[in-house]
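Q: Sequence in, structure out?
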Amino acid sequence: MRVVSLLIWLVWAASAFAQSFEGAVKLADDGNWTSALEIWHVLAERGHVRSLVQLGDSYYFGEGTEIRFDLAFEHYLQAAELGNSVAQYNIGTMYDYGDGIPEDDFEAVKWYRLAAAQGLANGQDNLGFMYKSGTGVERDYVAAFALFQLAAAQGLPNAINNLGTAYEDGQGINRDISKALAHYRTAAKENNFYGQYNLGRAYDYGNGVPENVNTALKWYQLSAEQGNQYAQERLGALYLADDRLAQDFELAIYWREKAAEQGFLASHQALWSIYSDDAGWPRDDVRAEFWYLTALRFGAVEPYAGLAALYTDPVEGEPDYV
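A: Exactly. Output:
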């Protein structure tokens, strides 16, 4: 009777926790984050895994509270150690990108592996990328391809795109551009910006399809609007100097500034060239200096020579030889 009573109590407790958790979700949806967080904290202290993950999300994204990577990591780790695959994946990404903790590729691989073993598509995809790049683990294209397949079979668009690149580059599988394009199309239609960029690139260079710059522009733009810096830079290059298109300095600058804001060095270089060379666009020393200095802040060394030239031959004022 004691065992039966214990089982009944556990079922009741699980049901009560679930009701309390969902009640807190509704409070958060209604904008009452303070009460929601209080409930999740109480449940988390009792070992409720979903509440631990939710608190991790709240602190990571600043939902209802300030962003606190340390507290996000603390709650994710508790849930991860209790076997939650999403929390394991989140811990992996924090180690992967150094969010509030020192970057550690080996720890990232460890946690991705745990999440992947439980069938989490994002964990499989990220672990596949680690194998592909040889980051935190010995490079293994065959293992990467197998992991991308597992994640793609669950419909994860990013993994579908990654399968496309494997087919295009012949990494872990025989090269097959038609299969690469099929995967890029599927990922692109699922609004994956890497798939959109890769499909645009195929039409841009006539890789497996007839060259068509207008179709390339369509896919690049969809990707660029989602923040893909590679698509943004390529759009800037096409609008600036491509004999298949009418030159459009304003669009060229617009897209390259978008990429440069993300630290894309090629875009920094293009922008300081546009503003300092007076090659079809009015020379603007202030803007040229801004992009030289911005590139320096992102760790580039190339701008020093350009800055020196700018200071010794300014459009206005006296040269500053010092």
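The radius of gyration is 25 Å.
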